[in-house]
Design a protein that fits this description.
Immunoglobulin-like, binds CU-O-CU linkage, seven-stranded mixed sheet, about 40% strand, mainly beta, binds copper (II) ion
Length: about 500
């Protein structure tokens, strides 16, 4: 593994460009306007499956599906033929049993992103593989003190994750609050993106797109193009927003409305924070309280620079050839009109958040997230050969690509560790750890003062972030990885075992 030279990058870019032309799809990075889609329908929410008597039992079938997207017929893959899949609504202490069926042509499995549940056996086990035509019975047992919040599920079969999530396999999980937050209504909004070819199939993904992380030409909310929602003035809505895009960062803004942040990833903030925008990387969730004011507002995602080829070559952002957009993209519109609704009672303060800085630290580790050319660079063979390594680019943590048989990070169950997440590459990496959330204590040179808990932490290009992790409640082996799913599939994933 050696660092990239400018020449190698140019070669890679050229190979990618060739591949795109051959593939006939034309553009690397198309604009998110996406051509030929119609928008503006009422926002639809997926079916909600709610636990009864502490148990939620369901079947979940991952299969090819024909789905209408913005007036076009798309050939995708979906859970139970629905985009997103059904929303699972549970309470702390509940047990979720999922009979998962794979009716696709590729192996798959199921991950419950953000849930604090056992990674072993038929729990949240990312090492399982369900072959085409096979089924598997999962069971997830939430502890009685599981944090409330918005979580999600998606496949996690290494080598297929980006393709399967991009194809439509994701759904929301809501863990109820112990004390309800007074709102007029709640909405679940699963944000995803995709690119269709003229026939409505998912467009091929070039080596360049895999390297930078694919971004789709159109951004969807609950599988819809720019849907619309309506409310009366003076209402309070709770929006549960999930970034289910394989690679796209979202910088959300909603002008003209009073917006407070209620939650990021897990739990809820003791006091909701006034915000004007929120950056959510792939895998992250936020909950917003929106207090409505008469008028029409758009939820937009503003451009995000998450690094890329330009940065790698020591240039600036190369417009049109970089991840992210140069223009804001409209995700949905909110129309507020009519007789004023009744304003709900004030939001009671939530529980104080745990602060691990007061607890003894058993171990300190550094994890280095790097990108470099793997093997001998250059050949077009390196670009086009191999199933997993299609870019000739190595995506490593501490110099190693993912190996499911290896234990990279043995930890002692019940202890607190400090991990320094170092990004030595010219692109941002959103770093995710399964089962155990992370408390961010230092971002670059800045100390983070208030307790800040996340399960996906953005580590900016050529920077570092320090987190504390309490390996509580469950022994077992699981993974951490970059949540740019193309990077994960290409090896930017490691294993951790608590014993
Ligand atoms: Cu959202 Cu390991 O995944
Ligand atoms: Cu996860
Ligand atoms: Cu990455």
């Amino acid at each position: 593994m050696s660092p990239l030279t400018r020449r190698q990058l140019l070669a890679l870019g050229a190979a990618g460009a060739g591949a795109t032309v051959v593939g006939g799809t034309g553009l690397w990075w198309t604009t998110t306007g996406g051509t030929g889609y119609t928008g503006g329908e009422e926002l639809i929410e997926p079916q909600v499956l709610t636990s009864r008597d502490r148990i939620l039992e369901l079947e979940l079938t991952a299969a090819p599906a024909r789905i209408q997207i913005g007036g076009r017929e798309a050939s995708l893959q979906a859970f139970d033929g629905s985009l997103p899949g059904p929303t699972l609504r549970v309470a702390p202490g509940d047990t979720v049993r999922v009979a998962m069926h794979n009716r696709m042509e590729t192996p798959t499995n199921l991950h419950v992103h953000g849930l604090h549940v056992s990674p072993e056996g038929n729990g949240d086990n990312p090492f399982l593989s369900i072959d085409p035509g096979e089924s598997f019975d999962y069971e997830f047992v939430l502890p009685a003190d599981h944090p409330p919040g918005t979580y999600w599920y998606h496949p996690h079969r290494h080598g297929h994750v980006a393709d399967q999530v991009a194809a439509g396999l994701y759904g929301a999980i809501v863990v109820e609050d112990p004390e309800p937050v007074p709102v007029t209504r709640e909405r679940v909004m699963v944000v995803s993106d995709l690119t269709l070819d003229a026939a409505g199939h998912l467009a091929d993904v070039s080596p360049m797109q895999q390297m930078t992380g694919r971004e789709g030409e159109v951004v969807l909310v609950n599988g819809q193009v720019r849907p619309q929602i309506t409310a009366a003035p003076g209402e309070r809505e709770r929006w549960r927003i999930i970034n289910a895009c394989p690679s796209r960062y979202l910088r959300l803004q909603l002008e003209g409305q009073h917006v407070r942040l209620l939650s990021r990833d897990l739990g809820r903030l003791p006091v909701p924070e006034e915000i004007t925008e929120a950056l959510i990387t792939p895998g992250n969730r936020i909950e917003l309280l929106v207090e409505t004011t008469e008028g029409s507002s758009a939820l937009i995602t503003a451009p995000v620079d998450r690094g890329g080829m330009g940065a790698m070559m020591g240039r600036g952002r190369m417009s049109g050839n970089e991840p992210g957009d140069d223009e804001p993209t409209e995700l949905l519109t909110l129309d507020v009109s009519g007789d004023p609704g009744r304003t709900p009672t004030p939001v009671p303060a939530g529980q104080a958040l745990r602060d691990l800085r007061g607890e003894p630290i058993t171990a300190r580790r550094t994890l280095d997230f790097a990108m470099g050319m793997s093997g001998t660079m250059g050949g077009r063979g390196a670009m086009t050969g191999g199933d997993e390594d299609t870019t000739g680019m190595g995506f490593t943590i501490n110099g190693q690509e993912f190996d499911p048989a290896r234990v990279d990070t043995p930890v002692t169950a019940g202890t607190v560790e400090e991990w320094t997440l170092v990004n030595s590459s010219p692109m941002d990496h959103p770093v995710h750890l399964h089962v155990w959330p992370m408390q961010v204590v230092q971002d670059g040179d800045r100390d983070v003062l208030a307790p800040r808990w996340l399960d996906v932490v953005n580590v900016p290009a050529r920077s570092q972030v320090k987190v504390l992790i309490a390996f509580d409640d469950f022994p077992g082996r699981t993974v951490y990885h970059c949540h740019i799913l193309d990077h994960e599939d290409q090896g930017m994933m490691g294993t951790v075992e608590a014993r």
